[in-house]
Amino acid sequence: MRNIYKNSKYNLNKAKKILIKNKIIAVPTETVYGLAGNAYSNKSVKKIYNLKKRPKNNPLIIHYYNLNMLKKDAFLDYNFLKLYKKFSPGPLTFILRKKEKSKISRFANANLNTIAVRFPNNKVIRSLLKKLNFPLAVPSANISTGVSPTEPSDVIDEFKNKIKFILDGGKSRIGLESTVVNLCGQINILRPGSINNAEITKVVGKKVFNIVKLKKIISPGLLKRHYSPGIPIKLNVKRSDDKAAFIVFGKRYKMKKNMFNLSPKNNLNEAAKNLYKILRKIKKLKYKKINVVKIPNKKIGIAINDRLRKAAY
Ligand code: TXA
Ligand code: MG
User: Rounded to the nearest whole angstrom, what is the distance from the C-alpha of residue 180 to the centroid of ligand 1?
Assistant: First the structure.
């Protein structure tokens, strides 16, 4: 398909050349696909905000290959290093204190004194990061408040011909955005993901809070409406009429045309991987309403419920 480029040495070099020119490309990660630009360049970062129609006060996650380059941009404390050792590269984003002399564009972190950093675990984006002498600002590759893309064709769905270069990394293995953990002051989880509170608590050895309701927006990803297909969604529904799309989970359903099963095998990881795909499909089929059964609120189910609640808001 047009604009989609296979993983090859030639195409990675081409991606590098485009990024050096302060242009934006789409990249795969193990969580969701992202829009990538040079995080040191104001010009690149502004382009990302414009493409996504993203509010300027919602900072981006900076993606690194390893600690070498990060050392210049952020303070690396003891808890960070412990979590890094255990979970990186992987689907965990850390909020760290930004260094005064960091070259990160102030637009990328919305002028805060912190930055969000992540080391994605997908071989295509890792090969690319390794070639660059700057980190990448990479938000999910969707128009603001919409559903994140989990394969190259979803990026075209979102941006049509505006993104000319999409690196193909196949389907995202996890399918939900990374867990965001704030390490500045009291440790808390700003966005649940596949790495859960219990796993983080075990590594840092002290209580980790889940931020659900905040007076002040620490993380604009907590904005109430988000991850939305733009169709009214009702949660914890037991029975649905045939006109609405009905999202179910598990073995016990006799499937009808309007029904979409997140995981017939009753597997929450599979459900996470299918969620955005199914929301996109339902939108394409032009349903006017979505009903969703209750999803078990454990492990990655906590993140699924978080996204569904925000999509339903
Ligand atoms: O899995 C992911 O994290 C994907 C892939 C592409 O890496 N990226 C992603 O980026 O989900 P985005 O921009 O859609 O979400 C970034 C989240 C937002 O909730 C944002 O508010 C929060 O990270 N964030 C970024 N910088 C922050 C900061 N300095 N303090 C608090 N929250 C921050
Ligand atoms: Mg996003």
Answer: 7
